[in-house]
Amino acid sequence: MKRIKKRDQEYIKQNNLKMILDIIKNKRSISRAEIVKITNMSPTSVSRIVGSLIDLGLVKETETSSSGVGRKAILLDLDLESVMTIGVYINKHIINVGIVNFGGEILYRDKIELNPKGTHPDTLINKACALIKDTIKKSKIDPSKIIGIGVSLPGIINSKNGEVIFSAPLSWENIHIAKVIESELNIKTVVDNDVKLKALAESLYGVGRNSGKTALVNFGRGVGSALIIDGEIFRGVTNIAGEIGHITIDPNGILCECGRRGCLQTFIVEDNLIEEANKVKKIVDIKEIFEAAYIGESWAVSILDRAITYMCITINNIVCMYNPDTIVLSGSLVEVYPEIIKEVEEKCRTSIWTPLRGTFKILYSELKSEADIIGPSTLALDTFLSFDI
Ligand SMILES: [Zn+2]
């Protein structure tokens, strides 16, 4: 089947358009001659394909630049305002919405804070739809330019049919969120897991820009990871690849939110660190553990030290499985408490399996909360941008 599909002329044409568009998107300001060099295609083919992209309004010719021998070359760039997508991020504390241009830049954004106890799907989806409508209105952007909405949320997602199969943080099961938003707003909608979309954003527009194989690991209310290979999300058969937080470390360990015992994330997540601390001292916020550790209280030092050990175990497991060139650390534990980063790096120096030491860089999320909007908007762009010529 694959071979038959690949031979199909229309498929090849669409692929060539997408490939050259991706090159222009990646380089921003590039000449036709440079595209010929990169693709090994004939100058005639490149000119024809670029012509189609210009006709579609996606690419425009920009100022001429000297090529060094006195000749002028016309450069190509994206027409940034030609298509827009909307990125939506939902968790139990917040809904973030942003309108993103063709170059992955957020033009307008808005948010609403939520009561974490009121996460009923109808309530949250209604609030998200109202916020999207409001953001479009306030932005004064021509709505006909918006080609799709991407939604990012924590959980197991069927990205093909837009269904949230299971989200422990939201307490949702089998919610066809994409369908509901589509019918409410009349804009095509796609949905995916938040960590996968964060990884996509960092790999295309953030700290992973120069990496071909980026693994992102998120340490926050849960532990998750995602792998991006050459700009594509690695999903596995049912889009669950990367759920490293639920690797069993201790079958007799403490109960995880997934209902099983001793999962890797139970050694790292905030709630469990707070619970552990409460065996010694009554606290309500993880901040108190960090504060106590600064002044050398041994109970706090040992809780954080154990969490850091398991963060390094997570990183080691990821590099053993995927052999990436870059690991991007993200999530509240590293974003809100950046002091933990140095200690993770220090410990990783000795805890990573020897053959993998020095084969990857550890970097830190550059886009932070912007990734929550750029990720889903990029997925919407990839899913709904069509080349009808
Ligand atoms: Zn679990």
Automatic annotation (TrEMBL):
Residues 20-63 form the HTH marR-type domain. GO terms for molecular function: kinase activity. Pfam families: MarR_2, ROK. Keywords: Carbohydrate metabolism, Kinase, Transferase, Xylose metabolism. One of its GO terms (biological process) is D-xylose metabolic process. Transmembrane segments: none annotated. InterPro entries: ATPase_NBD, HTH_MarR-typ, ROK, WH-like_DNA-bd_sf, WH_DNA-bd_sf. Transcriptional repressor of xylose-utilizing enzymes. PANTHER family: BIFUNCTIONAL UDP-N-ACETYLGLUCOSAMINE 2-EPIMERASE_N-ACETYLMANNOSAMINE KINASE, ROK (REPRESSOR, ORF, KINASE) FAMILY. Belongs to the ROK (NagC/XylR) family. This is Sugar kinase of the NBD/HSP70 family, may contain an N-terminal HTH domain. It comes from Paramaledivibacter caminithermalis (strain DSM 15212 / CIP 107654 / DViRD3).
